[in-house]
Amino acid sequence: MKYLAAPLLLLFLFSSCAKKKAEQQAITDEQIIQQYIADNGLTAVKASSGLYVVIENPGTGASCNSFSTVKVAYTGYFTNGEIFDSSVPAGIEFSLQSVISGWTSGIPYFKEGGYGKLLIPSALGYGPSGSGSIPPNTVLIFDVKLIQVL
Q1: Is 149's pLDDT higher than 50?
Q2: Is pTM, for the whole model, over 0.85?
Q3: Where does residue 55 rank: exposed (0-12), middle (13-18), buried (19+ CB within 10 A)?
């Protein structure tokens, strides 16, 4: 029995440490997003997930949900303004189940024709791993326009 206790204790300690790091990162992300909102004079809605949405135009067309396939034009950038990705102006099509969770929960705030910003904490983006040119634990900003719900 004592041979089983050591691995379980290590697992508990590792999981406790990872949870504490995630909680600290969430606090840091919140501070970064709040500063970005203040610096840019934005009015944002905060979702329970920690995502912030700036609705510049809510749109008047069809609504979508987190399971929809949509056509969206976007530009993604860091809080310092450096662009890391963008679509063609005509937009791209994708399922909201195949993108980062910040998009899955953020795009449904808009109807067709709507546009605004998604301010995404790192846990709803690429988290502690990062992706390509996106460093680990990075807050992401996206200008988005919901062109069509498919």
Answers
A1: yes
A2: yes
A3: middle
First to last CA, the chain: 57
**Tens digits of per-residue pLDDT, 95-129?**
999 999 999 999 999 999 999 999 999 999 999 99
Q: Are 50 and 26 in contact (CB under 8 A)?
A: yes
Give the E-state strand segments of 15-51 in sequence order. 45-46
- The pLDDT value recorded for residue 60 is 97
Which range marks the domain in which residue 88 is found?
2-149
101-115 residues labelled b (16+ CB within 10 A) or e (exposed): bbbbbbbbbbbbebb
Residue 83 to residues 76, 94, 102, 142, Cα–Cα distance (Å) = 6, 21, 17, 9
Q: Which residues pair with 69 in a beta bridge?
A: 95
Identify the CATH number of the domain in which residue 11 sits.
3.10.50.40
Number of structural domains found in the chain: 1
Q: How many CB atoms lie within 10 A of CB 48?
A: 6
SS3 115: strand
* pLDDT for 101: 97
